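Hey all, sorry for the wall of text incoming. These are the two entities for the joint prediction.
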Amino acid sequence: MITLGFVYVLAGLTFALFAVLGALDRSNPKRFGNAAFWGLLALSMLGGDTLGDFGNGLLVLALVAIAGTGQIGRAPGGDIPADVQAERAAQHGPFLLLVALIIPAVALAGTFLFKWVPGLADPKQATLISLALGVLIALAVGMARLKPPPLLPLQQGRRLLDAVGWAAILPQMLASLGAVFALAGVGEVVGDLIGTAIPQGSLFGAVLAFGLGMALFTMVMGNAFAAFPVMLAAVGMPLLIKQYGGDPAVVAAIGMLAGFCGTLMTPMAANFNLVPAALLELKNPYGVIKAQIGTALPLLAVNIVFIWLFAF
Amino acid sequence: MLVLIGILIIIAGFVLRFNPLLVIMASALATGLAAGLDIAAIIAAFGKAFNDTRYVSIIWIVLPVIGLLEAYGLQQHARTLIGRMKGATLGRLLTGYLLLRQGMAAVGLTSVAGHAQTVRPLVAPMAEAAAEAANPALTDDQREEVKAQSAATDNIGLFFGEDIFLAIGSILLMKGVLEGYGYQIEPLHFSLWAIPTAIAAFLIHGFRLRRLDRRMAAKTEATA
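and here's what came out:
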């Protein structure tokens, strides 16, 4: 049976090859920093389960030290000229689109297949495993037809990852910070603070505090999942549900979505907001957040009104 | 109260634009110390969480495929396709993608599309080509805005579609937390109550995309 372990091995080997190719790239003055960074990430993917908690912690400290002291960077140039790309596109265009669609198509088909046919792959991780299989199939099909130099996909993939840089592990780092916050009881303290700040006797005031609290605390934590239990304990349960008799399903479901509006407005939700800015090579790292605020704020207001209308 | 120092460090760090990885580590250490943990315990807790969340970073395995396809001109082809479609404006293209992303997420297919898989290789170049068709003299700032809006549309479609799916993490979390308070609620109820917001998200963002279209067109006339 295929498990998530297979995907970690695949990712580990990919990062290891990026590290080796990075170390050999003489055009990059920071090549050894890059090699060390991706090499450590490869070690985490391949051997994270045997390093122990403290060992993994030291690995993270090393990653932070490398990135924090500015030891990683990208090689200048290396772009394939636009006219060469245009010429190749004219020749291979429809085929390229087909290969690009193999990844989502296999992810889709595998998700259903692995759920219906037990024993092939871990059904809980069906989509991630299928995504990895889609990558392998797309790569094989593309290589067979295009016949590029054998290292081209890895070299180009490495260039893309170098462009993203340390932001590539930001989502994982923020998720880990959330675990430390939970251990230290940050949520309870924030919940108590918000609980004491609500005006008594106003239903709409309580709904407003709940909705805004979900959005704000999600912005701080970068994740509505972390905000939900705290805000429910501080405001949702004692006031909206117990005191005013609100429908718990509505309070929870729409409250969570109010939190998602916060996710659209915070750099702490790095994988949604900062990573794509790096991946699209935007000049403003907060460009995606800027584009989202105009939708997030009115939608937050709508969610607060929806809770008020539908829960009571 | 002292444990909130970590939040202050995060906010200050992001505002002052220090390297976020350093800021996160400083915040974790300060929060842990304020809560009375020793340094070794904080490092171990961070390491354990880092190892448990590795799946977040496996998305980067798609990069060799994207790199190969881009080297052979995938982005150019995506642009050509848009050029051939009559009436494919920037707003219509992104609204169509929004609907597709919401619909797929609503049936649980959240990882099928995404910033690395679909936005960078397909959606962003198509959006740029559509904007260019309306305004051949697109400025760099406008290009940035179009690309940023492509990523934003992906996020909004995902966030306000996924909660309609029964077995998504957030629904299981809500069910679990409410059960802790003694409320037994079927996942279907949470799903149904996600639908009004999903419709509102589509209307609000769709309206903004239409305005984006008009704004680009207005600038075309101004430059012509």
